[in-house]
Design goal:
Length: about 240
Amino acid sequence: MTDPILEVAHLRCSIAGQQVVEDVSFQVPATGITAVLGRNGAGKTSTLRGIMGLISRSGEVRLAGERIDQMPTHKLVQRGIGYVPEDREVFASLTVAENLALAERQATPRREFVAELFPDLVQRKDQQAGTLSGGQQQMVSVARALLNDNRILLVDEPTKGLAPKIVSEVADALQEAAKTVPILLVEQNLEVVRQLADDAIVISGGKVVHVAKAAQILDDEELTKRLLGVHAEQEAAL
């Protein structure tokens, strides 16, 4: 069994003095996709933002054994943590090509890989990102992270608010990406979780309350309803 790529121990996070993550500890394997599940407001997004140093945090975070919780966000990106935020954060006035170029950190970015995953972006390379649909902007956000050889990707609700066809395209892209890089995924669509995730971490009230294989949770309707407040067959928001 390989060592985990990411270890989080007793992570606590606050925003404007308000505690949003109480005490979160978990490990992310060096391969596959690990889903972070929980009801709305449970602390999932805040956990990812805390790991990235985007909000006030305490506790320990280790990347491949190296302590990183005292490092600023840009140093974490340089260490190989790719981050796809919930709100996409594209540069609206720049073109698709310019958005992607800004994300390139290495001498030989993975442009062909990204082009194969998102051919629509190739066709729209000269279009301003602000004029794209929500789904297309999400593709830009994911593509920016995939241009570089990351050691892990943190992806926050990539299918939120997207049409079913785009949900499928984004999920397929993440599935392909996971062949080469482990992913920590916050996702509200249970069908996407079922398709992608190997392991799952459930957060409630800012704490980890359950860790198991994703299929074990989703195949147990009573457990799914108790932990997530939905039936396993529903694609409702967590």
